Amino acid sequence: MDYPESYQLVFQSSAVEDDTVIVRRTTQDGAGGYPVYEDETGIVRAEISDRGEVRMLASGGHQLLGTPLVVRVPTG
Fold first, then answer.
1. Is the CA virtual torsion 21, 41, 34, 73 positive or negative?
2. What pLDDT, in 10s, does the model give residues 10-35?
3. Cβ neighbours for 45, distance < 8 A, ≥ 6 positions apart
4. How far is CA 69 from CA 29, 61, 64, 74, in A?
5. Which of 5, 30, 45, 72 has the CB geometry, 3.0–4.6 Å to 57, for a possible disulfide?
């Protein structure tokens, strides 16, 4: 199956605008067998299924993992 090279994850923020993070596909697969995506810092990591289901993955200790409000393939 072909998976997108990147996704936008939109998280609710207490600021005026929501936080949008772009994650790119890695060479790893998650426990569910779907690709693992991460941001350029390697801190935000997620396994994303072919149906757009997201499982956030901890990249270090003491992380509080939020669930994105929206998951979408970037346009343009």
1. positive
2. 988 777 788 899 999 999 999 999 99
3. 23, 36, 37, 38, 39, 56, 57, 58, 59
4. 23, 23, 16, 15
5. 45
